């Protein structure tokens, strides 16, 4: 992997700058002009979306490395402003720019308090998420990574529900503990690299022994695992989701969590391949535990929003499972599943928000039979649920199928023959699909169908035009990915293959070195052998 | 003449103090804020002179006035930090003092004298002059700390600061005496040279004792644990703009001197054999400050006290930076100060002055209860003040894209470069301590933004001077975090000048002078390089940054070429 193309026009910077410009503009608009705040915010996020379309168009799917790269000196001590996009980040960039305008539109009526500050926070959040995705310099990445926290903290803490302060502080402290250790990891990596550079591409060349890799993987991995969140680091998530306003939940579930999975794929795995190999099984185990645990806990919820929040834990378990299976299908499936989760869970949170705005409760028991008064709503909820549980024809199916297929392929015909542990993990994960169907459909049945037990549900207004527009847009994407996944997978495949080739190449290299030392070890998947042997010491 | 020129920044401040004193007599009651602008203008002139001297030919950086003072990059950088804090404090005082019923011009002239002393302190190259600077700075502050005459807390603050400051001065003086006894010199560079040469007449015990005494004395001034006990009380009781000045300028000045003294003296072979404790002492102070400062910060309910503990914790991070290079003082090439320390102090001073500045502009007519509930809802009632508090506090917490983050990142980067293996656990401890700190920083913001005010929230005092000061704080904090280019370069040159007269430690001429390249001759002592570039490839020259060489990147395909 390297730099494939340099940007003739700074499209990536433009995409980052448009939301920032919107935020600055908002700061100048008087406080009481709520409509102006919303319009400026929507316009800025739409402009960023249009700019990102030009990234999509100019992206060459055949190239594996970074494209549209911009590189400028930044700080005197080695950090540069380097941004670029490749097949791993492209879809997430598009997801971010696509979801943000919809989210802003969804908050049109819901947020009436301090609209200016809210929209500034949303736009800063968008810019920082985009920056995290396109940064090719470790310090730049870390800067954007940390900036993300503040607007989200404010969104939860100012516009959230009853226990918003607790949730906001918990969110902030939890994620910061992980990221400061990652900061030390970045500094250590820099120190080992010896080239006065924080560049990602230079970091890839850093020579690290297994012990260093394990520690660094732990430092980076903890930050990412908390963000994902990987079981058992997930306890902040339900609190944050339940207390956040709808728009905050959508962004949190839709994009913010993906920064964790993206971090694993972009940094933790390629930078520390041996450690990734050594950690692969434990991580996959935690992922599968997360799938099953998240599903059961979701099943037990009587609050719709909590149910969706726990379903996120389960879905991201799939993403992590696929990623650490480290086969082309599974990793691509996992990238696609990140997008799918953003779309369908985002839509679910929006639907919950629609209900909440009408009844001001999220308890499942407060509903029932509302398919009759809210026919359009019922349609969207059913479609989104089906997408979330992975019905063929929807986006969720493609992602989960690829992940499970890739995992099973690795388990059955991986380089080391049949791997029983992996096989068992795959089987247990597959039950998660069934569990997902159970708790989601149960929720849908209880909310939408059956007799209307609460009189006030008789006359609930159906979705408005604005809400319908948002949901319809998301639904189109659900089917688009479900029916034509190649439009998306073709853009990820080159980069993912290159990443895996580099990963396995480095593993084999290490193994050769070790064979020279003639150290006997148990035969396993050959590229995992090296790591195992080292761990066994 | 050139002496006078070199002295001009300090003279400008002293003159400002006298001028304000005179103008005070001519200014009627209620019009004193005018004096703040005069003071700020005087500081600005002084800052311009310092900047000019810094840019001037290197000859002017040489010691002057019989070699007791030198405006080298180190001195000039910290002169700038002190003056900046001074300007901000003066402007804040213009709004604060009338509201608190302190209507006197003497605050401004005392501030000017304190600044004069602080400048003298950071440009001193002679131990007695250094002591003189410390005393001038402190004496004015003893009075300033007790400025709110009606408040019992102010009296407590004044007395405490006076007594503990006196103890610190005694320690410092004793340390100076020990050094004089050991080496017969008061010139810092000369002492460093003598110690480096390591003559037989030098008593190691005296030197070691001197180091301990000096570190303890300066530890008081930088508010390092366990010499921090005065800090929360004094910071709380003093008028808030004075607190801002103490937390910003005084700490920066004391750190500049601490770094200079410790690093200039610490390369002594006398110490290398015996004195393992200088480094341990610094590390101990650092760890204690980080842990105690941050943990005690959590349980405070008064915003000023929270910020006081924050300033203690920051002293801990900075000491780690000094320790990392000091502990390598014996190794060739690593004699400069950690290049991030000056930058850190600049970013810290601005942010802490900003945070105290917001507090200074809160609270009408004599009410000075700054417990957390009273700032509740600040973000809504006064969005501009709230934003200034947000930026300052987040910068102190070390979050990007603010100056405090970059400073912390740079500091830990340099610490790890200097001592990769030994420093790693301490850096991990430091970042974890900064997460603890985040809790109390967030608590301030949580009250300011998330909570609704209960009974009587603190009202803001509108004022042009204070607004200007806070706007400057916000802009500078953002600039330091996003585009700090020149400041980083300045910080590096300041750090490289921190150790006095590095040229003096060049090894004696080689035994075989006929050799073309003496350093290659076997058996001859290697020439000790004067600058670290020679040994550390990371410390290559600075701006403009070289473009990435094509060889280091992979093949580039221009879009058109495909």
Tell me what the structure shows.
The complex is a heterodimer of chains A (537) and B (562). Chain A has helices spanning 11-28, 34-58, 87-110, 115-134, 138-147, 149-159, 164-193, 200-204, 210-227, 236-243, 246-256, 258-271, 273-299, 304-325, 328-359, 375-389, 395-413, 420-448, 465-483, 486-516, 526-536; strands at residues 67-73, 80-85. Chain A has 537 residues and is an all-alpha fold. Chain A has a domain at 275-484. A two-stranded antiparallel sheet of chain A has the order 1-2. In chain A, a hairpin with a 6-residue loop joins strand 1 (67-73) and strand 2 (80-85). The longest helix of chain A has 32 residues, at 328-359. The two termini of chain A are 32 Å apart. With 562 residues, chain B is mainly α. Chain B has one domain (2-507, 546-561). Chain B is 67% helix and 0% strand. Chain B has helices at residues 2-26, 33-55, 73-99, 106-123, 127-145, 152-183, 188-197, 204-222, 230-237, 240-265, 269-274, 277-298, 303-326, 340-360, 378-381, 383-397, 403-418, 420-450, 464-482, 485-496. In chain B, helix 3 (73-99) packs parallel to helix 14 (340-360), helix 10 (240-265) packs parallel to helix 13 (303-326) and helix 17 (403-418) packs antiparallel against helix 18. Chain B starts with a helix and ends in a 66-residue tail after the last helix. Residues 502-562 of chain B have low confidence and may be disordered. At the A-B interface, helix 5, helix 6 and helix 7 of A face helix 17, helix 18 and helix 20 of B.
Order of helices and strands of chain A: HHEEHHHHHHHHHHHHHHHHHHH
Helix content of chain B: 55-70%
In total, the number of strands of chain A is 2
Task: Report low-confidence residues of chain A grouped into runs of 5 or more.
Answer: 518-537
